[in-house]
Amino acid sequence: MTKPTLKVALLGAGTVGSQVARILTEDRKDLIERIGGVPELIGIAVRSLDAPRDYQADASLYTTDADSLIDRADVVIELTGGMEPARTRILRALNAGKHVVSGNKALIAAHGAELMAAARESGAQFSFEAAVAGAIPILRPLRDSLAGDHVTRVLGIMNGTTNFMLDAMDSHGAAFDEVLAEAQKLGYAEADPTADIEGHDAAAKAAIVASLAFHSEFHIDDVHCTGISEITADDVAAAKNDGYVIKLLSVCERDGEGVNIRVNPTLIPRTHPLASVRDAYNAVFVESRDAGELMFYGPGAGGAPTASAVMGDFVSLARRGILGGPGVPDYSYRGLQATSLSNVVSRYTVGLLVKDQLGVLASIANKFAENGVSIETMHQTKHREREDVEGADATIRIVTHKTSDQKLKSTIDELSSLSAVFDVASVIQVEG
Amino acid sequence: MTKPTLKVALLGAGTVGSQVARILTEDRKDLIERIGGVPELIGIAVRSLDAPRDYQADASLYTTDADSLIDRADVVIELTGGMEPARTRILRALNAGKHVVSGNKALIAAHGAELMAAARESGAQFSFEAAVAGAIPILRPLRDSLAGDHVTRVLGIMNGTTNFMLDAMDSHGAAFDEVLAEAQKLGYAEADPTADIEGHDAAAKAAIVASLAFHSEFHIDDVHCTGISEITADDVAAAKNDGYVIKLLSVCERDGEGVNIRVNPTLIPRTHPLASVRDAYNAVFVESRDAGELMFYGPGAGGAPTASAVMGDFVSLARRGILGGPGVPDYSYRGLQATSLSNVVSRYTVGLLVKDQLGVLASIANKFAENGVSIETMHQTKHREREDVEGADATIRIVTHKTSDQKLKSTIDELSSLSAVFDVASVIQVEG
């Protein structure tokens, strides 16, 4: 019996696209067995025909005419990134009933609902495991393995660059600027590191994870996002001293009848499984009603790891493309709404720069009490008078019990008005 | 549009079965949305109608006539465990084209090939995520997420009881018998703990994982298995002292043109992600060509966690049962063979009870050299003369570089013949 052929168009030949081209070429024999059909790479759409590539496929495959390539394909693998022309091209494919695999997190976090609707309309399949946490299988476990369970919370380290930086600060006591320079030198951080360090990259992934975990459509604008640029060596050292480590955490959790999605620097206890995620690795910690606590760990980026995730999607979708059957299930039946930060209940650490004088602890403790915020621990550390702030000769670190964002904010406002408090140096959430 | 109904037969109402009955009953509304059809629990086959249950479903559902229940169902969920009548019942269902979900690791490790063949023959789907590592999604990621990749090695902590015991020995320096008694008191270990401590439970899971990871059929008899009953507080303390922790590890790795599958106590460095798997948790660490290193962590047993895995399989299979399409892919196209231990290359620690006399280290080191085994480190610890072994007043611990099982065995044989060596107290693999 002749096996059916599946025509594959690859859009993009960058770090990930090159690896996908390599696997499609070199693993042809295995792929035929796994798919039950013959995947034929019919072309690779690129911007420039003579750019250097990590993997050089047959020269005749490269083309600058993406649209006509899409029109000739059964399956389109989009690995160009960015909003346009990626969005228009994916829609062109889906509208024509062609299956699409994409790793474009920014696009999916911004236009996922539109793309899913197009797929639903035409009966095409649309998969994007590679968009979140590189090689780590997280979307499929959320969608399929936990299909009979109820996720209550997801905590994720979803950005490798910032995890590398925070881990280096934690291990060597280095300053933020030093570790950023090191990350740039090693190629972990871009020349313009904004998307990583301000949390935008993690926020896009959090929106996608929240959508699948809670069966609802969330947009990157639904994510409350704070980056790590304010985190100092002092914050990291103080956390370490208290048995915590600071991570840029994506938190997606049920909040009343909605879902709260946020990305911010967060203290987690060193005994928590997420605390041992080092270097540029990613991990996603899932809490669910029946399964309990699960963690998925692995490389969050890189050409070959991300290509592995793309190929996993491709094989599943190609099997169905050939044998028929249902595509990826529609994940949005719940229709939950994103919630504001004001109801979020969490623990916090607060670092205050103060003058060590009679009654300063009492006046600070009173402000917390008046605002209904319960204190778990309070430490004062005496130090030399700061050169930049006259009279500031001590630091007070407070860890609160669980409290609402609103109550904490009003406490912080009132603390700033105390004459002995020179600066609220840091306010960081505590999870885990 | 009326949604189609799917008749579900549940076999077994024990710890896991009760939780599945609860979820099918209480989550009906969500399940209908997720499946696209109505799952109707038509009966629960039990041995005794009036046994106490963790969850009491409608009394009319319980029956002792499993066969006629199976004959009326579209989907059968088998959670009785053991070989018979489970095997005959699953075959009855699959032969009639009914889809089956099972969590029966012993049965699948022994008769998986027969059951898969029956499913293939009739076009029925057969899923068993719950058979390995409880709630942790591991079979689906191996089968689907890594479908375009090549797994090179799997290292797994797949038995919660022994991990609890080894973790307690590591944390409190307790003896084997103490921690076994504690595990039994807490309900982690059975009155007869043989299946856990001798590694048979982990071996069944290793055979299943190896089958999916390497696209070949493996049987529990293909697994080389050593339990933890010989592990002493001294072994654990010595490992700790050297920066290692002892885990009962399942190792499945490519070995030439075959696959080596073994379960044995193994030293892993404390910096390895598997080292931080505490208590009765399980974890599976996967090394693959493109994805690199992935780890999946979570509860390896328990009613609700295992039920979550069963329900994940059920929802996926029910969607396909209603909407049509390909079932679980056939995983055996590779046909790789299991290999013997003799070619396995690993690092080892060897603990020797000796008399501290002139030349003893040299004579031991010579035996390693003569057999072609390279030594990484060698420590001698002097202690009081052992009461049970006259003259034995020192312990030597050797860590080898990578060597074959065969070379190590001949070294050990020759060491035993040295007059200054009283006992080869321990030989433990090192991985990671």
**Which quaternary structure do these chains form?**
homodimer
- Helical region count of chain A? 14
Question: What is the overall pLDDT average of chain A?
Answer: 92
Instruction: Summarize the largest interface: chains and residue counts.
Output: A-B, 57 and 57 residues
Assigned CATH class of the largest domain in chain A: Alpha Beta
Sum up the overall morphology of chain A in one term: elongated
CATH superfamily of the largest domain in chain A: Dihydrodipicolinate Reductase, domain 2
How many individual β-strands of chain A? Answer: 18
Strand content of chain A: 25-35%
Assign a percent range to the helix content of chain A: 25-40%
Précis, in short:
With 432 residues, chain A is an alpha/beta fold. In chain A, 36% of the residues lie in helices and 27% in strands.
How would you portray this structure in words?
Two copies of one chain form a homodimer. By secondary structure, chain A is an alpha/beta fold. Chain A folds into three domains: 5-134 and 304-323, Rossmann fold, CATH 3.40.50; 139-297, Dihydrodipicolinate Reductase, domain 2 (2-Layer Sandwich); 341-430, 2-Layer Sandwich (Alpha-Beta Plaits), CATH 3.30.70.260. Chain A has helices spanning 15-26, 28-35, 66-72, 86-95, 105-122, 139-145, 160-172, 176-185, 194-197, 200-213, 233-241, 303-323, 360-370, 405-416, and strands at 5-11, 38-45, 62-63, 75-78, 99-102, 126-127, 151-157, 224-225, 244-255, 258-269, 281-288, 292-299, 337-338, 345-354, 375-382, 394-400, 403-404, 421-430. In chain A, strands 7, 8, 9, 10, 11, 12, 13, 14, 15, 16, 17 and 18 form a twelve-stranded mixed sheet that branches. A six-stranded parallel sheet of chain A has the order 3-2-1-4-5-6, sandwiched between helices. In chain A, a hairpin with a 3-residue loop joins strand 11 (281-288) and strand 12. The longest helix of chain A has 21 residues, at 303-323. Chain A is elongated, with a radius of gyration of 24 Å. At the A-B interface, helix 2, helix 6, strand 12 and helix 12 of A face helix 2, helix 6, strand 12 and helix 12 of B.
